[in-house]
Amino acid sequence: MPNKRSVIRNTALNYVGQAYVLLIGILILPFYLGHLGAEVYGLIGFFTVLQAWLQLLDAGLSPSLVRAVAHQQGAGDGDSAGRLLRSFELMFLPMALTSCTLIYLLSPWIATHWLNARTLQPDVLINCIALMGVVIALRLYSTLYKSGIQGLEQHGWLNAANVLIATLRYFGGLVLVSQFSQDPEDFFKFQVAVGLIETLIFATRAWQQMPVARWSTGMDWHLVRPILPFAASMSFSAVLWIVLTQMDKALLSRLLPLDQYGYFSLIALITTGILMLTNPLVQTLLPRLTVLMAEGRRDDMHVLFLAANRFVCTFLFPLAAVIALHAQPLILGWTGDAEAANWSRSILSWYALGSAIMAASAFQFYLQYAYGQMRLHLWYSLVSAVITVPTLFLAIHYQGVYGAALAWFFLRAVSFAIWPMIVHQRLAPGIHGQWLRDILRISAVTAVGLFISEPVFRLIADQSRTSLFLALAASGFITVTLVAASYKPLALKIYVLFSKPST
User: How far apart are CA 112 and CA 183, in angstroms?
Assistant: First the structure.
């Protein structure tokens, strides 16, 4: 049964799969910069931001489907999953059509009044933006089907499919731009084809695992209605989350020339990678936390929550700190572009640290998700958005992209100092002391690790890209090792906790 699987196995599968997806993107995308140029790379960065904003159309339904399917698995009621999936498919149809149509209608205005292109022609921009709308509509549906499969805890199959799609998307795109065409329209047509294949693969699997009695099965309001309050809270939360994480990128896409926005997209890719480091664990963690709550095992859920937070921060904080300290060598070694490296130097440092704090802060949301109590998170997100939006406007107006980087870091740092204590006191008062000790220990040992590893970095690094990567790897390895060693039997404790089956 899926709810008997070992969490450690599922987490390992998720990390292998998503590490591949993340690494292949990190390795391939600099080649896009070289073959397509900074302006087209900036257009790809704008496409990423557009996808994030139009996930608002999801309306919180995908995470609600994950939770509903996982809860049915824990309660032993799997027959209604197919009817749930069909209902969600019908609700997604107007959203997909709306997103595609809206982007098509707005593409001339975006191309001529929003983006600051110097060499790309307006008609090329218009066609590329219209193609982006088709890809986004397809990804809305692929996300829906992935959510159903995730709720069933079929992580092995899900990650294998993600690896296949990522290989096709990145390697296929590289072959296209290096061997056949550097036309940005051809690149986005290829993305449409990959999006269609992705949607069909995940749809087929979801239909097999969550079948309906008849293809004519329609909306089942009896199943959907209890989910809507949670979905509504998730929807509002998603709106605020995207405002918090994407407002700076949207504003900068208007402010910066498209080639400089291409350089900023490199920073956005790295910071997104930092945030994504938690995803493999979270995909396993959220269904399991929900199952433990459904079984009435609250103390076990708290123990698992603390262990997962400790595990993630052990790797997250050292990685972000090494990136922040060595931002310029990282970009230079990664892209070989000295101009991009010098432009990114001071900006990436603040973004990397802020992203690590944001990823760690998300665990407070996971705790509320497990309890099914989203009121605190909604108020937190609302207050954060009210503070963040004017702060970003002022920071970008007076200091440009550097102001955005400073605001990104300090807003996250202040909220991280205050918010976890409030959440823990309301939901799980007994865990805050251990959580705080873990955070302080990991932060302090990370600083020590950076100090110890700095002479090693200077000894190894020279002007070659290979030496820069080796120096960064050595610095990261030393820092992570010290942090992991500061917590006795970390690996064994995580294994025992995550391997404990549900009963």
Answer: 19
Cα–Cα distance for residue pair 315/305, rounded to 1 Å = 16
219: how many CB neighbours lie within 10 A of its CB? 14
* Within-domain flag for 268: no
212: left (phi over 0), alpha (psi -120 to 50) or beta: beta
Among the listed residues 33, 456, 14, 70, the one whose alpha carbon sits nearest the alpha carbon of residue 269: 33
List Cα–Cα distances, 492 to 310, 384, 443, 499, in angstroms: 13, 38, 22, 10
Residue 422 lies in a domain: yes
SS3 202: helix
> How much of the chain is in helix, strand and coil states, percent to nearest 5?
90, 0, 10
Sign of CA dihedral 249, 252, 257, 259: negative
Query: How many helices, marked H, and strands, marked E, lie in the chain?
Result: 18, 0
Number of domains in the chain: 2
Considering only CA atoms, which of 228, 287, 296, 208 is closest in space to residue 2?
287
Instruction: Pick the range with the lowest mean pLDDT from 44-48, 52-56, 260-264, 425-429.
Output: 52-56
Nearest to 88 by CA among 210, 193, 238, 233: 210
Answer yes or no: is 253 within a domain: no
- 106 half-sphere exposure, CB direction, 13 A CA radius: 12
Kindly state whether residues 193 and 310 are assigned to the same domain: no
Range of 51's domain? 1-228
Provide the token pair at 120.
């790309």
Task: Compute CA distances 211 → 146, 196, 207, 222, whole Å.
Answer: 15, 21, 5, 18
- Kindly report, residue by residue over 224-249, the tens digit of the pLDDT: 777 777 777 667 777 787 888 888 99
